[in-house]
Amino acid sequence: MEKRLQLFPKSTEIRRVDEVDQLAVAGCDLTQLAEEYGTPLYVYDQSSLDAAVDEYRSSLAAHYPGIAGITYAGKALMNLAAARWAAGRGLWIDCTGAGELYIAARAGVPREQILVHGVNKSATDLQAALTTAGTIVVDNLWELEHLAALAGEVAKDTNDFPQIWLRLRPGVAVDTHAFRQTGQDDSKFGMGFADAVQAVALCHTNGLSLTGIHFHQGSHFHDPRPIGPALERVLDLLSKLRDASGWTPAYLSPGGGWGVPYHEDDLPHPSIDEYVAFLAAKLVAGCAANNLPLPILHVEPGRSIVAVGGVSLYRVGAVKRTVNRRWLLLDGGMADNIRPSLYGARYSALPVANPLRPALDAAWLGGPYCESGDVLIEDLPMAEVQPGELVAVPVSGAYHLMMSSNYNGALRPAVVWLHGGTARLVQRRETVEDLIDRDV
């Protein structure tokens, strides 16, 4: 159980309250938060997010001799609070589509800190990007041709038209779930190298400000070594483009996707520093081998910044035994965390009260929804837990809320931001009225 505590934010402590040990995060008692805001509830510890950014920055400074920056992958968590926090830390924010661009704009994120991704950007997405973003990462030639046409309606010699990066498909994926791989030859993401050569020519012909190259190999990986061959292929292409046209990118982004430990079996987990050190060394060596100048290196972490800062709280309802299992049935599940059903993701949990009490036997933590796949955690050694008790699931900060749904009429949970011993509601719980707001 003590090892399980390592999965929680570093600010987590156990406090004695009314003769009972209680979990607290960032100086805030989780039981009190659940009573005030209800469950399911998501809490975010800002100090954990700050620490992850600091680790990325210190690692980049230590290992990369060129200029480096961080683009926060908004798809991991995107709301006004997260966008304002990221912008305040000087991060660029990666937005996918008009919806996330709207959030970033409402949060007051400066245009030069907004970057746009998307595999099939609609006309609405592109129009939003042209008015909101500083950089557009182009996925394919069809999209680039649309942008070139739009450029004719905008003065290209002003700062009104965003910079252009090209997303390449390097032909190498990282070791992760097949649904999260993006760099393989048959991926729907990015353009092949032959299309990239055409794209560079098209940008130059239309006077577009082509400043960067991007590739991404997959999300939630734990071994950086597959980055090596992908980077070699990309730098070889850039060498050929340089020889053919004289163009080299000012920016190079190898994407993000560095993983985090979700379960105690994942500990110890390779550090952010190990990932950055490997990436930087390969980029420096590759640029030297190809006689290329060092680009501005932009990494795009999302999960490895916000995942560990989030904790989800559930209240146990029915407790029952079937032939081979002890079931703890929670008031949340696949509607607020689809990852176990979608990816087979493994999680851990602790009771909020007396969290270090000995395990009774294995438990299955299931949700209330009408799917047999609505199981958050399987086969987890767990203490005896009674109906009405609170359970805390660590490493809940990334993708849960962004992939949440109203399945079975579920109401998406409230979100509370913790900082300096203060809890601040940043997203209210949905109401039943919200469920019919779009109905006509």
Describe what this molecule looks like in 3D.
Helices cover 30% and strands 24% of the residues. It has 440 residues and is α/β, with parallel strands linked by helices. The chain has two domains: 164 residues, Beta Barrel (Lyase, Ornithine Decarboxylase, Chain A, domain 1), CATH 2.40.37.10; 257 residues, TIM Barrel, CATH 3.20.20. Helix 3 runs parallel beside helix 10, helix 7 packs parallel to helix 8 and helix 9 packs parallel to helix 10. The N and C termini lie far apart (51 Å). The mean pLDDT is 92.
Ordered list of secondary-structure elements with their pairings:
Elements: H1 2-5, E1 13-17, E2 20-25, E3 28-29, H2 30-37, E4 41-45, H3 46-63, E5 68-73, H4 80-88, E6 92-96, H5 97-106, E7 114-117, H6 123-132, E8 135-138, H7 141-151, E9 163-168, H8 193-205, E10 210-215, H9 227-245, E11 251-253, H10 272-289, E12 296-299, H11 303-306, E13 310-321, E14 326-330, H12 339-343, E15 350-351, E16 361-366, E17 375-382, E18 390-393, E19 414-419, E20 422-427, H13 432-435
Parallel strand pairs: 4-19, 5-6, 5-12, 6-7, 7-8, 8-9, 9-10, 10-11, 11-12, 14-16
Antiparallel strand pairs: 1-2, 2-3, 4-13, 13-14, 13-18, 15-18, 16-17, 19-20
Keywords:
440 residues; alpha/beta; Lyase, Ornithine Decarboxylase, Chain A, domain 1; TIM Barrel; 2 domains; 9-stranded mixed β-sheet; 8-stranded parallel barrel; globular
